[in-house]
Amino acid sequence: MSDAGSTPSADAPYADSTWFVVPLFNEGAVVGDVIRDLRTRYPLVVCVDDGSSDDSAQIARDAGAAVVRHPYNMGQGAALKTGIDYALRDPAMRQIVTFDSDGQHQVDDAAQMIALREQEQVDVVLGSRFLDARTKPGLIKRLVLWGAVHYSNLTSGVRLTDAHNGLRVLGRHACEVITIEQNRMAHASEIVEEIGRHELTVREHPVHILYTDYSRSKGQSVLNSVNIVIDMLFR
């Protein structure tokens, strides 16, 4: 565990005390590269295989990640909860990073968010697509995300520019007090509401979400937009 007297690497701050929690569902085509790239800088990675029907779990294990498997698909919220619980078993863990398995998140962004959390001593750092111009969501997704931000700001009391960004850094205290009961996409709003309920300190940081040909071929952007709308309607 890094302590006050240690000097973290500039390109991978607190690598020995930061766990990356990676939900995994049928991403065998890309997850090996994602994990190998991540572990060149951050070796502590747990993938939660959420009932994949392909060889995702074995590929992630071969790439060096610890792998926990759900017996059937329970949803991303459940996968994050399992991964956070796993990381909390490490007494040296200072923070976790929630990180997608499909190649949309950037390790550089995560490293900067970790450094920001440690520098400002806040509980949570959340990624935002809308603090710079690198991310290029389509019009429909942009409109849905805009609506989600206003909904979340109204219901949680936490003022954000991007309420459904999966790249997050949660300090140990935040991991211990945040309760995730919503298994599927509603977990994103739930996490923000928990931040407000527990009066956790939070910062946002600009991130680049890379919408790849692979993710577009799976329809993830459109599907996530639909899930966000359903989340807001039911909540």
Textual characterization of the structure:
The protein is α/β, with parallel strands linked by helices. It is 42% helix and 15% strand. It is built from nine helices and seven strands. Strands 3-2-1-4-6-5-7 form a seven-stranded mixed β-sheet, sandwiched between helices. Strand 1, helix 1 and strand 2 form a beta-alpha-beta unit. The protein starts with 17 loop residues before the first strand and ends with a helix.
Cα distance, first to last residue?
39 Å
Order of SSEs = EHEHEHEHEHEHHEHH
Sheet of most strands: 7 strands, mixed
Number of strands: 7
- Based on CA atoms alone, the radius of gyration comes out at 16 Å
Secondary structure blueprint with pairings:
Layout: E1 18-24, H1 31-39, E2 45-50, H2 56-62, E3 66-70, H3 76-88, E4 95-98, H4 107-120, E5 124-128, H5 139-156, E6 168-171, H6 172-177, H7 187-197, E7 202-206, H8 213-217, H9 220-234
Keywords:
42% helix, alpha/beta, seven-stranded mixed sheet, disordered N terminus, 235 residues
Sum this structure up briefly.
With 235 residues, this protein is α/β, with parallel strands linked by helices. The protein has helices spanning 31-39, 56-62, 76-88, 107-120, 139-156, 172-177, 187-197, 213-217, 220-234; strands at residues 18-24, 45-50, 66-70, 95-98, 124-128, 168-171, 202-206. The chain has 9 helices and 7 strands; from the N terminus they run βαβαβαβαβαβααβαα.
